[in-house]
Amino acid sequence: MADPSSYRPKPGEIPDSPGVYRFRDEHRRVIYVGKAKSLRQRLANYFQDLAGLHPRTRSMVTTAASVEWTVVSTEVEALQLEYSWIKEYDPRFNVKYRDDKSYPYLAVTMNEEFPRVQVMRGHKKKGVRYFGPYTHAWAIRDTVDLLLRVFPVRTCSAGVFKNAARTGRPCLLGYIDKCSAPCVDRISAEDHRALAEEFSDFMAGRTGTYLRRLERRMTEAAEEMEYERAARLRDDIGALKKAMEKSAVVLADATDADLIAVAEDELEAAVQIFHVRGGRVRGQRGWVTDKVEEITTGALVEHALQQLYGEETGDAVPREVLVPALPDPVEPVQQWLTERRGSGVSLRIPQRGDKRALMETVERNAQQALVLHKTKRASDLTTRSRALEEITDALELDSAPLRIECYDISHLQGDDVVASMVVFEDGLARKSEYRRFQIKGFAGQDDVRSMHEVITRRFRRYLAEKERTGEWTDGEDPGAEGPSGGLAEPPGNTLTEDDGRPRRFAYPPQLVVVDGGAPQVAAARRALDELGIDDIAVCGLAKRLEEVWLPGETDPVVLPRTSEGLYLLQRVRDEAHRFAITYQRAKRAKRFRAGPLDDVPGLGETRKQALIKHFGSVKRLRSATIDQIREVPGIGRKTAETIVAALERAAPAAPAVNTATGEILDDTDEIMDDTEEPGQATGSPGEPVTTGAPDERRGQER
Question: Which residue windows does the record flag with biased composition (Acidic residues) (predicted)?
Fold first, then answer.
């Protein structure tokens, strides 16, 4: 018996969304399949105190050695996928899932002269077509009731059938046209069997052809003015569509296809494959791979196809292979797949409809797999230790950098220039010590000067804290302006943090990482040298080639793509970039919401936005003449004069300067709000790797 805590996933790793989960034993056999509206809440129920679990549930979780899950869009998809996997894996702990019975199936007894539609349990019989399994027998009966008006197949037992044949009177269903009444020869055995075949084809997913045929017959009946027949066909079509409850997991026309999705970042890629056979998801597989070279999504897809179908024992190639991007060139791959299958294969990107919806489900699973992989990789103690050791060796440090600080500069075309400082201790983010800065030493865009200023300000505070005997309380900010214009004096005997560490900027890092190449690294090293600090190492991580730059070196240090040390540096750098760009956007939004244009009487939001769009920024608007402002649609001379006057009154003041030292005061440096945590804006809690808008706009917004 296994201890469930040995394989219990952390709550943050489990998505709070609908899905299907599988418990496996130590031999990787699936022993239980279940579905949930919220995977996180449902799986948490299995890992409570064993004494509080049902004996069968306790036996299952102690037999299992791992648990995995698949994310879907809706509960209906989870239901369909659960049925498919129960049928495929036949898990031992699912046998008595309902009322100590096996799962019910919808069965069509094609082995009888007059096939019958019924609910069946237990062992499967030869010559009977089965659909399911289902959780509830009443769900089967509701579906059959809808379909009988279109496919009036026999549903009665053998006794009822024989009694009706003896008396010459059909049962009630025969009178209300929900049975074709073969018992009284209203329909021949051959025609009734053909009706049962149509019913089976519809249940197997081949629905599109039949619906189109009904719609064509309805149109023809209407054209021939047989309106009653057209109305009945219309109602039949409605009943069929209602029975076909739409789900991306079940595709029409018994589709055979493999859907491949890829989720990737700079270093790794997760591949997920859904195997669809007969219109239903029959299997799923996936893996996470290191990107050992610069590679496109199309090339990743090509490698995935080779791994799937290349071996003699590999998967059979279906008629359709749906992918997120095509290999370049696509023709050789297409021909290779055709040869492997022995007939034509459609390799394409789904654009719309059910296949596009199912592809989105596969993509969500790929993203979840990548996030889960990274979360496990980042939180594993052994992996973090190896990463710190690799950084120590690569940078030739005296000891492992247990505290790493990373800095990034962000701006939008030179406006609202800000910087971020993120802290990682023992390889994990220490969110409470994040800091953010406004660049005030100069105007305009200069990442090198900005980096020099930020490093200078941060470590000037470190030196000031180091010389003091007292520490700062939570309500005070070191470096704030004092009564005489200089730095405020410390309050004396104040408390440190509960863990004994100095507060605020007093705790130094062993390694400073800057987002950039040789120029930014040189600026950071120069700032530390000017302050007389020589016991803190500096490096930079250039994003394009992921090269590590050291001060004074002409060539970068190139870590292997599979290096845990490079992975840690990348996470630190990306988190600094995310935190900086989040602050820059918030600052810009605040400036737009409360700016000098707000004081202009009669100037509404629409015309303010038109002014900013026309000039690009308030700075450029401030330097514009009255005639130039009048060129903006909706702005007259009087309004333009009022705008100029308001901007002159709101001209920015010069930065405060310490009259004794000539240094610019940094009293507007900001400490991260307690309610703002990394991952909320462009990432996710516990996973600081940035994706999406910040990287896409990196050319304009740093």
Answer: 664-677
Q: Whole-number mean pLDDT of the chain?
A: 75
Out of 62-76, 351-365, 661-675, pick the least confident. 661-675
Tell me which of 44-53, 372-381, 515-524 is least confident: 372-381
- According to DSSP, residue 664 is labeled B
- Please give the average per-residue pLDDT across 87-106, as a whole number: 59
**Among the residues of 534-617, which ranges form H helices?**
564-593, 605-615
Q: 211-221 burial string, b = 16+ CB within 10 Å, else e? A: beebeeebeeb
**Residues 376/13, Cβ–Cβ less than 8 Å:** yes
d(CA 546, CA 524) in angstroms, rounded, equals: 19
**Residue with the larger pLDDT of the pair 206 and 619:** 619
> Both tokens of residue 11?
């709550």
Task: Name residue 66's beta-bridge partners.
Answer: 24
Closest to 462 measured CA to CA, from 503, 402, 495 = 503
Tell me whether strands 670-671 and 435-438 are parallel, antiparallel or unpaired: antiparallel
Is there a contact between 633 and 619 (Cβ–Cβ < 8 Å)?
no
Radius of gyration (C-alpha) of the chain in whole angstroms: 34
Say what angle helices 447-467 and 518-530 make with each other, to 10 degrees. Answer: 30
Domains and CATH numbers, the chain: 4-94 (3.40.1440.10), 252-377 (3.30.420.10), 395-591+655-696 (3.30.420.340), 596-649 (1.10.150.20)
> Half-sphere exposure (CA, 13 Å, Cβ side) for 25?
14
State how far the Cα of 544 lies from the Cα of 570, in Å rounded to an integer: 12
Q: Cβ distance 681 to 589 under 8 Å?
A: no
Q: How far apart are CA 78 and CA 128, in angstroms?
A: 27
Q: What is the mean pLDDT of residues 352-366?
A: 88
Q: Measured in Å, how far apart are the chain's first and last C-alpha atoms? A: 54
Peptide bond into 133 cis (omega under 30): yes
HSE (side-chain half, CA atoms, 13 Å) at 96:
5
Does the pLDDT of residue 651 top 90, yes or no?
no
Place of tokens 């064993």: 50
Cα dihedral 634, 638, 640, 642 sign: negative
Q: Which residues of 237-255 are buried (b: 16+ CB within 10 A; e: fewer)?
A: bebbeebbeebbbbbbebb
